Amino acid sequence: QVQLVESGGGLVQPGGSLRLSCAASGFTFSTSAMTWARQAPGKGLEWVSKIYADGTPSYADSMKGRFTISRDNAENTVYLQMSNLKPEDTAIYYCAVALTFWGQGTQVTVSS
User: Fold this and answer.
1) Among 27, 54, 78, 106, which residue's CB has the most CB atoms within a 10 Å radius?
2) Is the dihedral of CA 22, 28, 34, 37 positive or negative?
3) Burial class (CB within 10 angstroms; exposed 0-12, middle 13-18, buried 19+) of 38
4) pLDDT tens digits for the chain (112 residues)?
């Protein structure tokens, strides 16, 4: 079955960086577009970024220039490199495939 396991979250100071990972299994990763989304406390799900099978990335406007999505098809893993983090980036970050299968999420907290 499809499994997505996020990791790499944690507590970071404003202006800091984190790299999230999402290890995938149970489907053909190399031909699948992968998505990152997040949910801040008390708010709805927000789309963050997507990477197509050919490696083409796309980002929400508020993440452009700060977040970088990438993938390693040999490792069946998608990454989200986040830099210049802000308190408003505090959220649970999820990866998804086909917007149907979701991981359990990883908590990112940006605070001094």
Assistant:
1) 78
2) negative
3) buried
4) 999 999 999 999 999 999 999 999 999 999 999 999 999 999 999 999 999 999 999 999 989 999 999 999 999 999 999 999 999 999 999 999 988 999 999 999 999 9
**Order of all β-strands in the sheet with 3-7:** 3-7, 18-25, 77-82, 67-72
Q: Which of 24, 91, 74 minimizes the C-alpha distance to 82?
A: 91
Residue 22 token pair: 């999402």
Region class of 29: left (phi > 0), else alpha (psi between -120 and 50), else beta: alpha
Structure tokens at 110: 């940006």
- β-pair partners for 46: 38
